[in-house]
């Protein structure tokens, strides 16, 4: 039996790790590209490597999106059926501090991969998935954003991803490569990086519960997002490449919540009542009611959420919600995990991580 081969860039990240698991379950041979780091960066995929049944189907290669020679070498060796380009400097806030680096990795990095497919003569064999983003919509031009909505990127991250979106389309049209964009709205999980807002809240709250921290410091808590679960969404990425032709798809839950709603529901899930005071930069949340037997480290009146202006962005995308009609219809997809299940899963996982850390 001939197994399909896939390359995943960004395999050490949130989405890369879930997609690797998903493809291995589908009997793919998976080749992940990880970058060299001075500290361990494989914690999200170590469990795959350590699984003796999967070890001989999962291979890691050192590589960087900016090192086109190595990318070409890996692609030439593996001759993959599918490439999923998940690698990126993916933090919107950080992209304002690192605009040049973000632009190179996210834009030229994507071009390097497409060019490598072409240089290796794999235009007819290798399908290419580009991790496009709802950040492309930025200053929204339509209430719910679909594949037809005009883009208006508002950060170096979003502009770099705009280049990547178009170069993917260009290679599709110019060289007949099966190259598709998945325009994914925010998706989270217990594997989300700790500096993204949902995880910052769930890990911060878990540390407060165990008495390791007193408050969570945030920026714009009125920002609205369409949050799904990464495990759900990587299945979509795969479906995008199984569609009969290359195309672009919006992937979203079509439901919108504020950061403040997310915070309130995290506390609610744990049975802790908070109340908001003040306005703008002076807004904060205090604990009003909780079970002191269950949470001995908490105190009534503790200020658990504070606003800090350093977490505001120079140009904010404060309102995103998707229209995923096309994906639902053509790819027969709909998200399975709702925001309450997502919150539960993230908090339970973070409480366990923090609990274990207190035992060391
Ligand atoms: P993530 O957790 O930040 O993962 C990014 C991955 O890229 C990591 O494995 C990282 O390596 C790797 N990477 C960074 N720079 C690299 C470089 N120069 N060369 C090679 N690898 C590099 O991001 P994610 O949430 O999984 O998102 C996956 C992709 O989807 C990204 O392209 C992101 O922009 C896009 N996206 C994400 C969302 C979302 O809500 N999560 C929504 C839309 C689009 P290290 O582990 O060493 O840092
Ligand atoms: N990170 C962060 N930290 N965001 C905060 C904070 C904070 O302390 N306080 C408020 N926010 C607000 C941000 O200003 C933003 O409006 C919202 O929370 C979500 O921020 P992030 O979780 O950092 O995600 P993002 O929407 O900017 O970007 C993510 O989703 C994109 C898809 O729309 C990333 O995963 C991108 O890679 C992805 O493309």
Structural features, described:
The structure is a single chain. This protein has 360 residues and is an alpha/beta fold. It contains 11 helices and 15 strands. The strands form 4 sheets. A 7-stranded parallel β-sheet has the order 3-2-1-4-5-6-11, sandwiched between helices. The chain has a 4-stranded mixed β-sheet with strand order 8-15-14-13. Helix 2 links the parallel strand 2 and strand 3. Helix 7 crosses helix 11. The longest helix is centred in the first third of the chain and has 21 residues. The radius of gyration is 21 Å and the shape is globular. Bound molecules: NADP nicotinamide-adenine-dinucleotide phosphate (NAP) and guanosine-5'-diphosphate-alpha-D-mannose. Guanosine-5'-diphosphate-alpha-D-mannose binds next to helix 4 and helix 7.
Question: What labels describe this entry?
Answer:
binds NADP nicotinamide-adenine-dinucleotide phosphate, 360 residues, four-stranded mixed beta sheet, binds guanosine-5'-diphosphate-alpha-D-mannose, 11 helices, seven-stranded parallel beta sheet, globular, 38% helix
What would a concise description of this structure say?
Helices cover 38% and strands 18% of the residues. The protein contains eleven helices and 15 strands. It has helices at 14-25, 46-49, 68-78, 92-97, 99-119, 156-175, 197-209, 230-242, 259-269, 325-330, 339-359; strands at residues 5-9, 29-34, 58-62, 82-85, 127-133, 179-184, 187-188, 216-218, 224-225, 228-229, 248-251, 257-258, 273-277, 284-289, 303-307.
């Amino acid at each position: 039996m001939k197994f399909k081969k896939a390359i995943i860039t960004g395999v050490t990240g949130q989405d890369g790790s879930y997609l690797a698991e998903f493809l291995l379950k589908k009997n793919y041979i998976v080749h992940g590209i990880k970058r060299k780091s001075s500290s361990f960066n494989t914690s999200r995929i170590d469990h795959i490597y350590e699984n003796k049944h999967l070890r001989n189907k999962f291979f890691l290669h050192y590589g960087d999106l900016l090192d086109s020679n190595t990318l070409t070498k890996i692609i030439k060796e593996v001759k993959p059926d599918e490439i999923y380009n998940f690698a990126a400097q993916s933090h919107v806030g950080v992209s304002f501090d690192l605009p040049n680096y973000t632009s190179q990795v996210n834009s030229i990095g994507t071009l390097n991969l497409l060019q490598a497919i072409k240089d290796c003569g794999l235009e007819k064999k290798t399908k290419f998935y580009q991790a496009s983003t709802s950040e492309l919509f930025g200053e929204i031009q339509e209430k719910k954003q679909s594949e037809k909505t005009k883009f208006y990127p508002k950060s170096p991250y979003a502009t770099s991803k705009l280049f990547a979106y178009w170069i993917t389309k260009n290679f599709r049209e110019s060289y007949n490569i099966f190259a598709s964009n998945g325009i994914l709205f925010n998706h989270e999980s217990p594997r989300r990086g700790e500096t993204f807002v949902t995880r910052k809240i769930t890990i911060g709250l878990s540390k407060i519960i165990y008495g390791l921290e007193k408050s969570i410091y945030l920026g714009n808590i009125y920002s609205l997002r369409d949050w799904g679960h990464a495990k759900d969404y990587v299945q979509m990425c795969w479906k995008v490449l199984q569609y009969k032709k290359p195309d672009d798809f919006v992937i979203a839950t079509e439901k919108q919540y504020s950061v403040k709603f997310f915070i309130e529901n995290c506390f609610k899930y744990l049975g802790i009542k908070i109340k908001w005071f003040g306005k703008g930069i002076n807004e904060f949340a205090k604990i009003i009611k909780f079970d002191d037997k269950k949470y001995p480290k908490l105190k009534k009146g503790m200020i658990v959420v504070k606003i800090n202006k350093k977490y505001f962005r120079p140009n904010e995308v404060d309102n995103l919600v998707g229209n995923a009609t096309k994906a639902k219809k053509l790819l027969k997809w709909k998200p399975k995990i709702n925001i309450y299940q997502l919150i539960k899963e993230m908090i339970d996982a973070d409480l366990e991580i923090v609990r274990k850390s207190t035992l060391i």
